Amino acid sequence: MKSIDQHYIDGRFVASHGSEVIDLVSPTDRSVIGSVTLGDEEDARAAVRAARRAFKTYSISSLEERADYLQRLHDAIMARAPEHIAIRTLEYGGVARHNAFSIQGSAKVFLNMRKTLEEMPFRKRVGAAEVLLRPVGVAALITPWNSAIFMVCNKLAPALAAGCTVVVKPSESSALQIRLLVECIDAAGLPPGVVNVVNGRGDVVGDELTRHPEVAKVSFTGSTTVGKAVMRNAAETVKRVTLELGGKSAHIVLDDADADAAAAFALSAAFMNNGQACIAGTRLLVPEHRLAEMKAALLKASSQWKVGDPADDGSALGPLANARQFDRVQGYIRRGIEEGATLLLGGEGHPPGLEAGYFARPTIFVDVRNDMTIAREEIFGPVLSVIAYRTEDEAVEIANDSIYGLQGWISTGDPMRGKAIAERIEAGAVMVNRIFDLFDEAGVPAGGFKQSGIGREFGVYGLSEYLGTRAVFA
Ligand code: NAD
What we know:
The structure is a single chain. This protein starts with a strand and ends with a strand. A hairpin with a 2-residue loop joins β6 and β7. By secondary structure, the protein is an alpha/beta fold. It binds nicotinamide-adenine-dinucleotide (NAD). The site of nicotinamide-adenine-dinucleotide (NAD) has 29 residues, from α7 and α8.
C-alpha cells in the first residue's frame, strides 16, 4: 500500500493543498493497492508559477544542455525499468508482452527527440530576416491512464527539447506509475521548476491549467469529449492546443490477403494493450466472398489471446483498467447484440474463473453494419466488429465513414496495392501488414484527422508544436 500525497513542484516533492483522497484499486482483484491525494486549483497555480519562473532561464538554455537532459531522462527511466514494468502490471493490468514495449518506448522517445534536435533548423535566413524558432512558454501536459508513462514522456520530450517548461496533469488513476516516473525525472537533475507534476481531477486541476493565463500551450491526450472542453477553455486566452483524441480505426483486409496472417494481425491491432489503445483497429472490413474463411481464421487466431492474470507471462490480455471501463465495455457488448450484430466470440461477462477482477471476454461481432453503435463509437476494450464489403471503393468509403481519423490498418498480399489504398484513408497513420513500427521510428509523426485531434506528435512535427517563429530584421 502506497499513499501518494505529494505533487512535484519547483524541483521538490511537496504536500498537497487539495485534500480529497481516492483509493487506487487493482484491476486484477479489486483490492485497494494505494491512495492518492488530489490537488486543487491552488496546487495547479503553484505549479504554473514555478514553471513560469523556470521558463526565464530554461527557454534560453543551449541545445546541448537540452540534449543532455533528454539523455539523462532516458537513462533515469531505464535504470528503473523493472519497477516500471511491475507497477504497470499492478496498477493498470498491463501484460508482460506489452509492458516492456511500452516502458522501453517511453524512455526511447527522449533519445529520439535528442536526434530530432539536431535536425531542427532553429535559425534560418529567409530573405532579409533571420527566422528563429522560440519556445512558446509554459506548457500544460494532460494525459490519460492507458499507457500512462508513455503518454507523459511523449509530451515531455518535445516540450523540453523546445525549451518550454511544463506542468503535467496525469490521469488520477495512474498515480503509482506516475510517482515512479517523477522520481526518475527528479533523479535526472533538471533545473527546479522545469518539470512540475500535479495529481488531480480533470475538472479541477485540468480545468485550471487549461484556463490559466500564464499557460501558453496545452497538449492533451484523452477522449474526444474532454478534448472539446479543453479547446473551449484554451480559446479564452488563445492558447495553442495539441489534441490527441479517440479513434474507431478500420482494418481493411484486401481480397488477396492470406486469411490466417490477416486474422492474427487483426487481433493484434484490435486487442493490443488489453484493447485500450486509441489506435486499435476495431472495425475489420472483410471482402464478402471471404467472410466464412475469415471467421474461421479469426476463431483460430483467438486461441493466442488468453485472458489472465497480467503478472502471468502466458497472459495476452489482462483486465480492463477500472470498474468504469468494465461497465462501459459490457454496455457496448449489450448494445451490439440489441442492434442485431452476431457474436462470433465472447460476449458479456467475465471469462470463467476471472470474476475477481475487471476481466472482459475478448469479443468478435460479425454481421455488423457501419451505422451500428459498435461500429461508430470508441469502445476501448477487446471488442472487434467485422463488417463485410463488396468492392475496394466500398471498403475505403466505409473506412472513412467515421467521425474519427486516427489510424488505418491494411492486410494484403501485395504491399504496393496496400500502399495505394493507404493513401485514400483519412487517418494520421496507416499500417500495411505491420504493427508497431509507428512508435519505433524517430521522425514519423502521429496524430489524427477529423475528431481524432489537432496537431502531431514525434519528430520535427511534434517538436514544432512547442515552438513559435520570430522573424528578426537586423
Ligand atoms: P479522458 O478524456 O477522460 O481524460 C484524459 C485526461 O484529461 C485525464 O488526465 C483527465 O483527468 C483529464 N480531464 C478530464 N476532464 C478534464 C477537463 N474538463 N479539463 C482538463 N482535463 C480534463 O480520457 P481517459 O479515459 O483518461 O483516456 C482514454 C481516452 O484517451 C480514449 O478516448 C483514447 O482514445 C484517448 N487516447 C488517445 C490517444 C491518441 O494519441 N490519440 C492516446 C491514448 C488515449
